[in-house]
Amino acid sequence: MDKATSGWINGFVGVLIFSGSLPATRVAVMDFSPVFLTVTRATLAGLLGLALLMVFREKRPSRDDLVSLVVVALGVVVGFPLLTALALEHVTSAHSIVFIGLLPLATAIFAVLRGGERPRPAFWLFSCLGSALVAGFAISQGLSASPVGDLLMLAAVIVCGLGYAEGAKLSRRLGGWQVICWALVLSLPVMLGLSIVTFPPTLHDVSAAAWTGLAYVSLFSMLIGFIFWYRGLAQGGIAAVGQLQLLQPFFGLALAAGLLHEKVSPAMVVVTLGVVLCVAGAKRFAG
């Protein structure tokens, strides 16, 4: 298997795992505060990441890598989880998932700014078309319904795109799973302290579904998904493989409908299918 194909396969597995993040977060914030959920998922994943680094006796990153690791931590360990958790207090996971269609464009932009990649002009046409479909859908639904939720999701997409591109660039030197583990460990002291401070006064009213959501975002969304995702981005190219995120709304909407019984409108399905079609064109002209 060539490197590019391996990158697309790893990226696809990562997208499948990430597709469950927003529905799981939506369930968890029904019983946990967004801040507690964010810091606790990072704490649990950080402890697992620390164990992995110790078991495999990984070499510590250099000082030059620390700035990049901080950017990764702020983007995907703290920024995206917190902003999406706050957004899901105002909007449904089905509505918020559509915003994930903007992630490929954000990732591609930061791939140019931080990763030094130069996709062809036709690539930007397909990437922008997919993003325009998503933005148009959000506007058609009436941003006045929850401007706070939509703005939080937009901010989450921006910081996540930066974290993806920075982590993928660093993965070329440190390795995919090592990058997310070191970013989690770097965040661990602060996240652990905040977990203790924000710990709920009682856990009696926390449902099994909320615990399941917390477990999923801690183990899969915060750690396992990134192992595949960063490896895929590093192998197949940040901008190119990043377009696989256009598939994430499709999987996420299916989960939101099947597990949370949220209403998925025909417009959501049409937009999602339209964005999925853009991935083929973007992939073809990525390099």
Automatic annotation (TrEMBL):
Pfam families: EamA. The chain crosses the membrane at residues 7-29, 35-54, 66-88, 94-113, 122-139, 145-165, 177-197, 209-230, 237-258, 264-282. GO terms for cellular component: membrane. It is a multi-pass membrane protein. InterPro entries: AA-Vitamin_Transporters (IPR050638), EamA_dom (IPR000620), EmrE-like (IPR037185). SUPFAM superfamilies: Multidrug resistance efflux transporter EmrE (SSF103481). Residues 7-130, 149-281 form the EamA domain. Keywords: Membrane, Transmembrane, Transmembrane helix. It is found in: Membrane. It comes from the Bacteria. Belongs to the EamA transporter family. This is Transporter.
